[in-house]
């Protein structure tokens, strides 16, 4: 795949433009967040910021403008807005209002799931592992067809289209620019060690279950990593930086993009159905079955 192919695909164009808006606004807010702009959800450490809601509003407004027949579901449930409602600067305003993104196949209605900032605690504390995540599935069949995760402080974007593989680029490709794409295929054969990534709930009752799970899972691994972003963890599994990722209690917006990226990279993937079901992505069938047997 090259930049021309990326820029020509209607759904990837939409995801790329949405990510460009999100990353620019994250950069705007990164040094401006103060305690009064940060609130908590049900738990003091489950943070939400003015940046989360603004990014989701702008992305929702963009999607509804350029793909009006699609469904948009955001983590924060923020109301759609345009640059007229939230001044975002000339360049972004032009992107939001005058994007070349087409409606694509009129017979393919997409259900988009948007996480404006996955890893909000990292974002608030100045840690690099936070990202914008957008995944879409065919509203008629339920098949996941598009996923993109953009981590501005890591200067990395991961993306996948169903049947076309999973890819990584150093930055969001733009019209007229060039980008180097790397195909993702999971763990390279010569890579040593067995590393698993996971995350934990904010509630003590759920953490108790997750800690018990972890004791069993670690019988099959040498080490553990926790990035603080489910979307990034799934992409790291797709890259082969970790052998597997699992976690209970995720929202659909957490894994909508990353699960497809891992799947298109050749990993075994289990998506949650019920609220506390596990999300699993593993580089081999044996490792996948081992983790599932532990949960």
Structure write-up:
With 295 residues, the chain is an alpha+beta fold. It has 2 domains: 3-184, Fructose-1,6-Bisphosphatase, Chain A, domain 1; 195-294, D-Maltodextrin-Binding Protein, domain 2 (3-Layer(aba) Sandwich), CATH 3.40.190.80. It contains 9 helices and 14 strands. Strands 3-4-5-6-7-8-9 form a 7-stranded mixed sheet, sandwiched between helices. A hairpin with a 5-residue loop joins strand 5 and strand 6. It starts with a helix and ends with a helix. Keywords: Hydrolase, Magnesium, Metal-binding. This is Inositol-phosphate phosphatase. It comes from Brevibacterium daeguense.
Percent in helix = 25-40%
Radius of gyration: 18 Å
Shape: globular
CATH topology of the largest domain: Fructose-1,6-Bisphosphatase, Chain A, domain 1
Strand and helix order: HHEEHEHEHEEEEEEHEHEHEEH
Reading off the top of the CATH hierarchy, the class of the largest domain is best stated as Alpha Beta
The CATH superfamily of the largest domain is identified as Fructose-1,6-Bisphosphatase, subunit A, domain 1
Profile the largest sheet.
7 strands, mixed
Strand order of the largest sheet: 3-4-5-6-7-8-9
Number of domain modules: 2
Put simply, the count of helices is 9
The appropriate CATH architecture of the largest domain is: 2-Layer Sandwich
Uncertain residue segments:
43-47
Class from helix and strand fractions: alpha+beta
